[in-house]
Specification:
Belongs to the TrpC family. The chain is of the alpha/beta class. 38% of the residues lie in helices and 16% in strands. The longest helix is centred in the N-terminal third of the chain and has 12 residues. The radius of gyration is 18 Å and the shape is globular.
């Protein structure tokens, strides 16, 4: 781990479990679907590029969604998701590599493996189009980025501050996620993305992660430079009784900019 700052107990527990999880027996070979192409397709269709996350639960969520991950994935894509993220962490998020495998077989959009990977062999558990690497939790970030690319993964490097952004860029990251959640206090502040994003080169694809719940949040992150948004709880709607219309939740968020454009058009005489 690359930071001396204290972590929330829940995060410490996640990392302890991650350190004990085994990797695969041999390197895998992935024919990845391009996230950048998926982002371009969404934008050309007038949709905000959203990476919709299948997250049964989390330490910060109320309740658990027990719906079939394939059904959720198909509904998210129907709602306009440009890509998907699937939790494979089993202990704290109820995720699994098998869920990711099934989802990727069922959809044609890129699928991100969301987990807490700390060593190279853990890349070899399941095929995905992208692999999340959290800068704060990786000792040899450059080596793990290279190892992911050798297998065909597109590495998505997650950062939270300017120092981690510099580390990600130094490791050769081209896809960077800025996590608005402080892993020390588990508090979310959308201003985190707004402070980090201007420091990134223009040729880097930036993804805003955590805390995006409403169309207004989507517009705020897009205005700050987000090429795409990774959204989980607002789509999964943890803790809600009864059925949740996942497709409608995605559609509302992917149409956020169109909604604002419609408002502008309707009120154009007063603008």
């Amino acid at each position: 781990m690359n930071s001396d700052e204290a972590l929330a107990p829940a995060v410490e527990s996640i990392l302890e479990a991650a350190a004990e999880r085994p990797g695969g027996d041999e390197p895998i070979d992935v024919a990845a679907r391009s996230l950048r192409d998926a982002i371009e397709r969404a934008e050309s269709d007038g949709r905000v590029p959203v990476i919709a996350e299948i997250k049964p639960t989390s330490p910060t969520a109320d309740g658990t969604r027990e719906a079939d991950p394939v059904e959720l994935a198909e509904a998210m894509v129907d709602g306009g998701a440009a890509a998907l993220s699937v939790l494979t962490e089993p202990t704290h998020f109820d995720g699994s590599p098998e869920a990711l495998r099934r989802v990727r077989e069922a959809v044609e959009v890129p699928v991100l493996r969301k987990d807490f990977l700390c060593r190279e062999a853990q890349l070899d558990v399941v095929e995905a189009d992208l692999a999340l690497l959290i800068a704060r939790f990786v000792d040899d970030l450059e080596g793990l980025v290279a190892a992911a690319r050798e297998r065909g993964f597109q590495p998505l490097v997650e950062v939270h501050d300017a120092a981690e952004l510099e580390a990600a860029l130094g490791a050769g990251a081209e896809l960077i996620g800025v996590n608005n959640r402080d892993l020390g206090r588990l508090e979310v502040d959308l201003a985190t993305f707004e402070s980090v994003a201007p420091r990134a080169p223009e040729d880097v694809t930036l993804i805003a992660e955590s805390g995006v719940s409403t169309p207004a949040d989507v517009r705020r992150m897009r205005a700050a430079g987000a090429d795409a948004l990774l959204i989980g709880s607002a789509i999964m709607d943890h803790g809600t009784c009864g059925e949740v219309d996942v497709a409608a939740n995605v559609q509302e968020l992917t149409g956020a900019e169109t909604e604002r454009a419609g408002e502008t058009t309707n009120d154009g005489e007063n603008a």
